[in-house]
Amino acid sequence: MMTSNNKITLYQFQLCPFCHKVRAALELKGVPYTRVEVAPGNKKELPPLPEEAPRKVPVLQVNDEIIWDSTDILLEIDRLVPDGLSLTSAEAGEADEAIEAFEEWVDRELMPALPTVIYDTWPNAFKAAHITARESNFGFWDRFKVKVGGSLIMKLIVKRILKRVGRTDGHAWLQECLDYAEQQLGAKEFVVGEKPSIADAALHGAFKCVEEFPVFAKIDQRPTLKAWYDRVQTHREQASSHT
Length: 243
Prior knowledge:
Layout: E1 8-12, H1 17-28, E2 34-37, E3 59-62, E4 65-68, H2 70-80, H3 96-113, H4 115-118, H5 122-134, H6 140-165, H7 170-185, H8 198-209, H9 216-220, H10 223-241
Helix pairs in contact: 1-2, 1-8, 1-10, 3-8, 5-6
């Protein structure tokens, strides 16, 4: 169980939606943590990882324990912090499978769609590279390399993702995702039940990732999604203020 003496560090990349998913969960649970920005190239900021762990973010370190994979991290957070809001238990009468299914959909469909709309144009790719450099503690040369080379890499990522999923239009893909999320929310306060869950953490983290980009207006223009987004944001801020 987590206590106030635990040292919790999240190794992340600012424009990684899976990292924002973990941040959303930590803040909804009111768990204080330190962020370490990881260079997207050499990832030298990562702690020593077990052999079976990929050199990818997010990585959460709780004291000497290393946890990777965003879903595993969220499940572990709930286990380590059993008090207060439970992210993995649905309200009475709701199936836990609904939470799991929606979170899996976010990971499978929405998360890969996001890079295709935030790196889609050269101005957006340059902006993304600038945000990455701005949020980091990298040295001058590392920041310079991110700003100069990052935008090119980001444009290549878009092509690779679209080719892998057999699509040509990232914006149309995102619109489909927003339609689905809106349908699942309906008139409910949260994705499943009356309190936020892993499903809400995943969706809110994904949307938070694109908050500084023009595409966020597409979320803002949908009353159901905007009201839900603001509701979860309030929960995050209130829970974090009590830590």
